[in-house]
């Protein structure tokens, strides 16, 4: 299909509703995160997959944030255009502002807080003009309701109060296709520029000239309303490639299974043995099995993760500092349960042996990394660094100094932001996906948890796993890398490092963090660019440790 004459317009000028604002702060509607990825990213990814070439996005409320995040992710993949509109006016005004600048023949309009499973390309091939509809809605007064006549659009009722629901009604779901942009532009002159124009108003006027078909939506995720957001999040539940998550909507229980059965058994054991006074920090366990086919059933946590809040919320530095303090309070709670014995051999295994084994695994499985690791030097963004083969022995000596008996206590073992759910309204955290065993049991080096927190904030672990970066490899071991920095990044990083230095040696935390980035590489074998970014950060950190 030829998309040269089709312009896609994503409407994302407004801000999120007040109920969601209490969760994420005041952000543009397109940045509402769904399992780590903003809803507008999911829309753009779908358009890219289907082959669309020209996308315009209306921006208004906090346009700089939205444009920065989208540009860094997609500017090198597709022709993007941002159109500033008045976010305080209805979306119909945004459409009319946008089409003044367009020369194409057809226009596909998508609401920036709405996901559908229908393929846009198939819909366009089968119709001249169409709107996407659904019979799955509750209160008619909350939606733009339509009726049909011979399968075509007939009557339109936009959020009409006291409208009783009938079997003949459908809701408009936020996807509209206009086959004749010139006709749509002619609609423009029928409105006063000062009017508040809903999309339904445009459709009514356009319908006077053209017959509008309808297509029933396969699956509809409206994330712009709080109630629908949490339902959509449940339905789009995801997991890493080696895990499987299944959500039972009726019981609101998540069932986890894994290809790595031993790891899941250890995780279940960690949940079982968590002290009673710490049980409020974990989801409620509904059922489990530690046999050859283990599974774990947990209550579903509807709140966002700290990773989602870190990347896409508009929280102030003051608020993030409060969050960091609460995380360190959790670490203090863990330290109330000191280990009876964590032998130095556990440190040796976690920090040295595991890293070496993971590097060997990477070397055996990845030709590009065999080439990278064979070199004595590595260039990252033009700066020269000593490569792993050169610094390995010095790093091993540093590892010997990490053992401090007072640091051995109960730990989580994977305290990255994506494993921490945050109900900020009630000041509660829920921790998921514990490591299970650090060495021989659930006790280990608390500095490991500290390094996990730091690698989420300072060095962008969650930023990278959520795709907000670029990394490329050229000849002679030159890596070009760029990582998105959230709002007030530098200030919050400085505060975190100050908190760390009050209790621990910051250089030791950086050492552990560098080893973490390198040892995790085989776990991300499905993303070579991500591996490049992780390895680059790890090498930079380890060089920094040795240079101090």
Description of the structure:
The protein is an alpha+beta fold and 548 residues long. The protein has 3 domains: 6-225, Spore Coat Polysaccharide Biosynthesis Protein SpsA, Chain A (Alpha-Beta Complex); 237-299, Phosphorylase Kinase, domain 1 (2-Layer Sandwich); 306-547, Alpha-Beta Complex (Aminoglycoside 3'-phosphotransferase, Chain: A, domain 2), CATH 3.90.1200. It has 19 helices and 25 strands. The strands form 7 sheets. Strands 1, 4, 5, 6, 8, 9, 10, 11 and 12 form a 9-stranded mixed beta sheet that branches. A hairpin with a 5-residue loop joins strand 16 and strand 17 (295-299). It is globular and about 80 Å long.
Low-confidence stretches: none
- What's the main sheet like? 9 strands, mixed
Helix count? 19
**CATH architecture field of the largest domain:** Alpha-Beta Complex
Shape: globular
**CATH class membership of the largest domain:** Alpha Beta
How many individual β-strands?
25
Proportion of helical residues: 25-40%
CATH fold annotation of the largest domain: Aminoglycoside 3'-phosphotransferase, Chain: A, domain 2
Number of domains: 3
**How far apart, in Å, are the first and last alpha carbons?**
58 Å
Proportion of residues in extended strands: 15-25%
Rounded mean pLDDT is 90
Rg over alpha carbons: 26 Å
> What structural class results from the helix and strand content?
alpha+beta
């Amino acid at each position: 299909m030829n998309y040269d004459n089709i312009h896609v317009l994503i409407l994302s000028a407004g801000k999120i509703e007040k109920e969601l604002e209490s969760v994420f702060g005041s952000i543009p509607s397109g940045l509402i995160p769904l399992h780590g990825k903003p809803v507008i990213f999911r829309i753009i990814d779908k358009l890219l997959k289907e082959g669309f070439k020209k996308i315009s996005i209306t921006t208004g409320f906090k346009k700089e944030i939205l444009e920065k995040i989208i540009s860094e992710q997609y500017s090198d993949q597709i022709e993007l255009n941002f159109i500033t509109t008045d976010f305080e006016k209805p979306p119909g005004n945004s459409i009319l502002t946008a089409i003044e600048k367009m020369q194409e023949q057809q226009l596909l309009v998508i609401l920036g807080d709405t996901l559908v499973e229908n393929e846009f390309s198939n819909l366009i091939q089968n119709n001249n003009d169409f709107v996407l509809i659904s019979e799955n809605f509750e209160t008619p007064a909350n939606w733009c309701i339509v009726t049909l006549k011979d399968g075509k659009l007939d009557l339109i009722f936009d959020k009409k109060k006291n409208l009783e629901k009938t079997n003949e009604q459908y809701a408009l779901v936020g996807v509209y296709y206009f086959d004749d942009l010139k006709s749509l532009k002619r609609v423009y002159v029928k409105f006063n520029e000062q009017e508040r124009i809903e999309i339904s108003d445009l459709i009514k006027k356009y319908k006077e000239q053209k017959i509008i078909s309808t297509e029933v939506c396969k699956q509809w995720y409206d994330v712009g309303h709080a109630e629908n957001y949490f339902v959509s999040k449940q339905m789009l539940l995801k997991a890493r490639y080696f895990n499987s998550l299944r959500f039972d909507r009726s019981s609101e229980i998540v069932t986890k299974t894994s290809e790595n059965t031993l790891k899941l058994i250890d995780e279940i054991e960690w949940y079982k043995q968590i002290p009673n006074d710490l049980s409020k920090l974990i989801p409620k366990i509904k059922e489990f099995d530690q046999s050859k086919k283990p599974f774990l059933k947990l209550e579903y946590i509807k709140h966002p993760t700290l990773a989602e809040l870190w990347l896409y919320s508009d929280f102030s530095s003051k608020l993030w500092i409060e969050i960091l303090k609460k995380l360190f309070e959790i670490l203090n709670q863990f330290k109330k349960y000191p280990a009876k014995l964590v032998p130095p051999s556990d440190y040796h295994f976690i920090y040295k042996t595991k890293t070496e084994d993971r590097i060997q695994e990477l070397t055996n499985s990845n030709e590009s990394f065999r080439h990278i690791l064979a070199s004595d030097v590595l260039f990252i963004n033009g700066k020269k660094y000593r490569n792993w083969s050169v610094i390995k022995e010095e790093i091993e000596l540093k590892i010997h100094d990490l053992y401090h008996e007072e640091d051995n206590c109960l730990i989580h073992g994977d305290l990255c932001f994506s494993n921490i759910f945050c109900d900020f309204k009630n000041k509660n955290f829920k921790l998921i996906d514990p490591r299970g065993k650090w060495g021989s049991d659930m006790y280990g080096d608390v500095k490991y948890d500290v390094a996990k927190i730091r690698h989420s904030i300072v060095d962008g672990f969650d930023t990278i796993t959520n795709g907000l970066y670029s990394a490329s490899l050229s000849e002679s071991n030159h890596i070009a890398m760029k990582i998105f920095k959230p709002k007030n990044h530098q200030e919050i990083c400085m505060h975190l490092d100050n908190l760390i230095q009050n209790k621990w040696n910051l250089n030791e935390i950086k050492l552990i963090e560098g080893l973490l980035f390198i040892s995790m590489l085989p776990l991300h074998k499905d993303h070579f660019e991500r591996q490049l970014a992780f390895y680059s950060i790890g090498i930079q950190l380890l060089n920094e440790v040795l240079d101090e």
